[in-house]
Design a protein that fits this description.
By secondary structure, the chain is mainly alpha-helical. It has one domain. It is built from three helices and no strands. The radius of gyration is 16 Å and the shape is elongated.
Length: 89
């Protein structure tokens, strides 16, 4: 059975993995900017990271404060430790 906490942990691991791959690809592209293979790799993992981040944020709230916002909702909703309380209650 997949619990809310397991799903949250899985998504955080996915996001971290994809973000690492994206960052490494950026470093490689700095040295080899004409590499089509590296650019394809970057684009693939950037899409995967964005998808996993969107899924996480739709279920558990934002991971980071917004870069540009019309209204400030960063502190609305439960904090990470409150999500744990919801799962345990």
């Amino acid at each position: 059975m997949i619990t809310r906490d397991n799903q949250r942990s899985r998504l955080i691991k996915e996001i971290s993995t994809y973000a690492f791959a994206v960052y490494e690809a950026l470093l490689y592209l700095d040295a080899y900017p004409d590499s089509k293979e590296a650019l394809n790799f970057y684009n693939k993992y950037k899409r995967l990271e964005s998808k996993a981040r969107a899924e996480y944020e739709s279920k558990f709230g934002p991971l980071t404060a917004p870069a540009d916002a019309q209204e400030w909702k960063w502190t609305n909703g439960p904090w990470p430790w409150q999500l744990d309380e919801e799962v345990n209650s």
